[in-house]
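Hi Y.,

Following your request, here is the sequence exactly as I used it, all 389 residues.
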Amino acid sequence: MEFTFLQKSTPKGGQGFARYAIRSTVAKKDIVGNKSGFYYIGKNSASIEKIVKIFKRGYASELIDNAKTELKRCISQEKNSVPEIIFCEAQLDFSLIRDFRYFLNNHPILSSIPFVLDASTLSEEKLASYKKARLADEIISLKETDERFLRIKTQFLKKVKTTTINPDAVQQIHQNGLPPVNIHLILKRIFDITISLCALLLLSPIFLLIALAIRIESKGSVFYISKRAGRGYRIFDFYKFRTMHVGADKNIDEFSHLNQYGANAEIGPLFFKIDNDPRITKIGLFLRKTSLDELPQLINVLLGDMSLVGNRPLPLYEAATLTTDDWAARFMAPAGMTGLWQIKKRGKKNMSVEERISLDIDYANRNNFMYDLWILANTPYALIQKSNA
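Below is the corresponding structure, written out as tokens. Let me know if you'd prefer a different format.
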């Protein structure tokens, strides 16, 4: 598939504005539906070229004011050119981006389109301020984001935007210039920081003893670090004490017939877990049965990657199979050390994939601070398991 950037004529007084049409060699009949392609505001050619590899069509403009005009035209004249996602360079003026977000939120059609800030060239200081302002549905660095997961994240954001639009919240943002305060999220984050920090300090001697035991039994790193997908398919480094022999995670195909959730990876969502896993070390077996292997996740909680309570963060190969409307809702909840699945079904051999995802979605729909406290109160009983799955 090839794409061509066709520069349009610059209107008088446009002050450097240039609109580009990104056209595919694919026949027009292949481009169907009410929304298709992307709209990019800015002039970062590297970011645009990366998006072009994913979407069949799209437009790009350098100025926000002209983007408003173009989007209105797309809706009124070209039904099939309404974008399915809008990207904007975070380097543009903060107040202009804020006003553009108001414009999107108050439009009956555009309010359902995900709005993403491209932080590819943003400094750490500015990135922190933009995250605090929460004026976009997501802030990502297109330069560092994998193309496959950019598409997955787009699908997720579309799902969220079509199910969680709150007219009252939109009106509050428009009037006050700030998003509505969610007291449950504030209490949850304060609680996470307080508990995780205190626990890390108090448990530091246990950390040292576990690390020593792991190194004595087998060579290799004390920690197992892997990429996981959390809330909104956000990818982060996930920490655990290593409980398997080095390189065991590369032998999944060899043990696929022992998968607790079934060996067919071509149909529906994929989860991988083995009861009495032969790859586990002796120390690892003890750590898993007592759940001590999960203590390093307190670091993830302190950093904000996870919460004490939430849905389990998934390996990328599992998350990639949960992008349909039926399953993606589980990613609307934060990733957590413990959750509804852990206290109700953990380690049970007869648990199906559907049951596990159903519990995750149930938590995503009901989660609040008091519900988290209830789950935490019921977690100790689940810590000592009968299986090492």
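Residues 73 and 113 are 16 Å apart (CA to CA).

Thanks again,
Q.
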